[in-house]
Every structure is written in structure tokens, then in C-alpha cells.
Write a structure and sequence with these properties.
Layout: H1 27-36, H2 39-43, H3 62-79, H4 84-93, H5 102-114, H6 122-133, H7 147-155, H8 179-202, H9 208-214, H10 216-228, H11 234-264, H12 269-274, H13 284-302, H14 305-327, H15 334-339, H16 345-354, H17 358-369
């Protein structure tokens, strides 16, 4: 049973290109499946989330992170009686526009584009992927996703100004997205915050003492775990604590979003869209706890000296290849050379780089710019239970 404010697939605004209904899958389920079978989705497996594989093969990449976001988003959607099929499609597609090397690669690609008078935005790039780059059907380019999924790609994590982005006018930029899209960015942050604590601890870049001192929510739950399981290994205490942190964040998101919807008197999807602000969100208390934890990760992990060399190398590789292909467009693959006849060369080069995996872009750097920058000394984690 869907809530009155949930998106109903039978009321979808449809696809760009009309298609007959499928005998046993609704349109949002078909969108989910089209994303899963897309080449861009498969490439996420070889794109950095935070840690490269020099640390461990166990750590998250873009693909495993995406799966974790989908799991959290589905849980929240089920409790709020939202459309789980739409939520799952949005969660699985939300990072499909990210370039190689994580946020360092995105920063470098955006800098290269701005030097050419453009910019790079991974949400807008994701829309280009599903609208044009993926070619799996004879009748049309792209994946021909429903309006609701395309809208969610654009609006799940930020609000775009309609005057600055007139090309996005069809997505009603002056309105809020449905709740199914609103919760994706929140599920994304819950997923990566917990995962990055876990991976940072396993990589020995975050010590247990530092986490306990810098993340009060974690410390509070760790004391409970220590009291309940005084004899178990440190790693198991860590795992039990992290589970409680996740439950705290997810449970509060469910409860507070339900409360805000009720207080706003929201009864339909149209009410959600026309509300003055987004309704999905944490309570003030938990949002402050979340903010403190996020600041801890930025100060102690994302900007840690241990990761600085890899970030510098990523920016070097992206910047050098961008400059090379701008000066030597004939070295691009033929399909991209053809695209450059109708689009700005900078945009074509950006599209090519953004679609690469970490491994492939390093191979391209070796081919066109010389030997790849030396990788930092490999750090393999040990099993903390041994």
C-alpha cells in the first residue's frame, strides 16, 4: 500500500519515446533494470569511492557504495510507504555520472572545463549518459527512462536555478522533487559516512581512540557495546557500534520525515512538490550529530596526508590528458572525433574522460603522456580479528 503522497507508476509522466507496456514489469522496475544493465553502471566497479585498491580489495568502490545506498533507501521508502521501485532506480543511478578517481577526479575535470569556459557537474553528466551515451536500443538513443527517474537524477541532491539552467526547464526547477527523490541524497550520506568510518578504520588511517574522541555519537554507542560485550575483539565492538550509528541515522530519517509530512499536511505528490522546502530530513538533534561526524571525516580522513599523494596524482592525470586531447583531437577515438564536429571539443573530451575507469585512464596516461605517476607504497590492511 502506497501513501497518498507517494509517486504512482500508473501516473508517471512517461518516457520520451513511447513504448508498449511490459507484461510483468512496471515502468520503474524497467528503469531499474535498464540502469543495472548499462555499461556506465558496470564501470562503477572500477571507479574509486575514497580508497584505491592499494589499501584493500575489501573497501568500497563506486559500485558497492551504490548498492549500499540502494539498500538504505529501500528501507526508508518501505517504512514511509513510498514507491520502492522508483527509489531503487534512483539510488542505483545516482552516482552513474561520476568520473574516475573519486572527488579528486571530479575536481580536476571541473577545473579543466572551467578553463575552457564550461564546467563539470556529475548530475548533469549522468543525465547525458542515460539520455544519449548509452546505446542499447534500435528505436532511440539512451535508455529512454521515465520522467520521474530523469527528474530524480537532476534534483535528488541539489536545486538548480531555472534561469541558470534553462535547458532543464521540463523538470520544474521551481518545485521540490517527490519524496522518493528527496531521500536519495540523505541515504547517500548515511551510507558513505558509515562506510568511510569502516574503511578508514580498516586502513589504519582512523584509530579507534580518534573516532571515539571526535565523533560523540559513535562514542556513546561504543560505551554501550563495551558494557554488553566486554570480552570480544576490538573490531567486533567497532562493528556493533557502527551498526547502532546506522540505525540511529536511518531510524531518525524515517521518523522525522514522517513527522514533517504530517505537520505539513501533505496529502499528495503535488503537495510535496509545492511545499516551500524539502520534507525529507533528520531531526535537529540527529542532524547536529550527523554534521559533527561529517566534519570529523573531512578533517581526519578525506583531507588526511595519507591520501594527499593519490589525490595529487589523480588531478595530474586528468589535467594532463584533458590538455593533450584539447591539443591533439585527432588522437581521440573516431566516435569522439565525430562528436566534436557538432559539440565543443572541451565537452567531448570531458565526456570521454568522465566515462573512464581508474585503470583505463591510467593506461591512457601511459600511452599519451608517458609513465603514470608513481603510486604510493602499497598498504594492505591486516585482519584485526587475527
Amino acid at each position: 500500500m502506497l501513501a497518498e503522497y507517494a509517486v504512482r507508476v500508473e501516473q508517471s509522466c512517461g518516457r520520451r519515446h513511447s513504448e508498449p507496456p511490459h507484461p510483468y514489469r512496471n515502468d520503474f522496475q524497467r528503469d531499474r533494470d535498464r540502469v543495472v544493465h548499462a555499461r556506465a553502471f558496470r564501470r562503477l566497479e572500477a571507479k574509486t569511492q575514497v580508497f584505491t585498491r592499494r589499501y584493500s580489495d575489501h573497501f568500497r568502490n563506486r559500485l558497492t557504495h551504490t548498492i549500499e545506498v540502494a539498500q538504505i533507501a529501500r528501507t526508508v521508502a518501505a517504512q514511509l510507504s513510498l514507491n520502492i521501485d522508483l527509489v531503487e532506480a534512483l539510488a542505483l543511478v545516482h552516482d552513474i555520472g561520476h568520473p574516475p578517481f573519486g572527488h579528486a577526479g571530479e575536481k580536476a575535470l571541473d577545473a579543466a572545463m572551467r578553463a575552457q569556459g564550461f564546467f563539470f557537474d556529475h548530475n548533469l553528466h549522468a543525465l547525458r549518459i542515460v539520455e544519449d551515451f548509452e546505446q542499447r536500443y534500435a528505436a532511440f538513443r539512451g535508455l529512454n527512462l521515465t520522467f520521474e527517474v530523469r527528474e530524480g537524477i537532476i534534483k535528488h541532491s541539489r536545486d538548480y536555478d531555472r534561469q541558470e539552467f534553462p535547458e532543464l526547464a521540463e523538470y520544474a526547477l521551481d518545485q521540490r522533487p517527490p519524496l522518493e527523490a528527496q531521500l536519495i541524497d540523505l541515504a547517500d550520506e548515511i551510507a558513505y559516512s558509515a562506510a568511510d568510518l569502516d574503511d578508514g578504520y580498516e586502513a589504519h588511517l582512523l584509530s579507534l581512540d580518534d573516532i571515539r574522541a571526535g565523533f560523540p555519537m559513535f562514542e556513546r554507542f561504543y560505551r554501550e557495546v563495551e558494557k554488553k560485550y566486554p570480552q570480544v575483539a576490538e573490531k567486533l565492538k567497532f562493528n556493533e557500534t557502527l551498526k547502532r550509528v546506522l540505525d540511529r541515522l536511518v531510524g531518525d530519517l524515517i521518523d522525522n520525515t514522517r513527522k514533517r509530512v504530517q505537520e505539513a499536511g501533505v496529502g499528495t505528490v503535488a503537495d510535496v512538490r509545492l511545499h516551500r522546502e524539502r520534507l525529507a530530513g533528520h531531526s535537529l538533534e540527529v542532524d547536529e550529530e550527523r554534521r559533527v561526524g561529517k566534519e570529523f571525516l573531512y578533517e581526519n580522513l578525506y583531507f588526511s596526508p595519507a591520501l594527499a599523494e593519490e589525490k595529487d596524482n589523480a588531478e595530474l592525470v586528468v589535467g594532463a590528458l584533458f590538455a593533450y586531447w584539447m591539443e591533439n583531437p585527432s588522437a581521440l577515438p573516431l566516435a569522439y572525433q565525430e562528436k566534436s564536429r557538432g559539440e565543443p571539443l572541451a565537452r567531448v573530451v570531458c565526456d570521454y574522460i568522465a566515462g573512464m575507469t581508474d585503470n583505463f585512464i591510467n593506461e591512457q596516461y601511459d600511452t599519451f603522456c608517458g609513465t603514470s605517476p608513481p603510486a604510493p607504497v602499497s598498504i594492505r590492511t591486516t585482519d584485526r580479528l587475527s
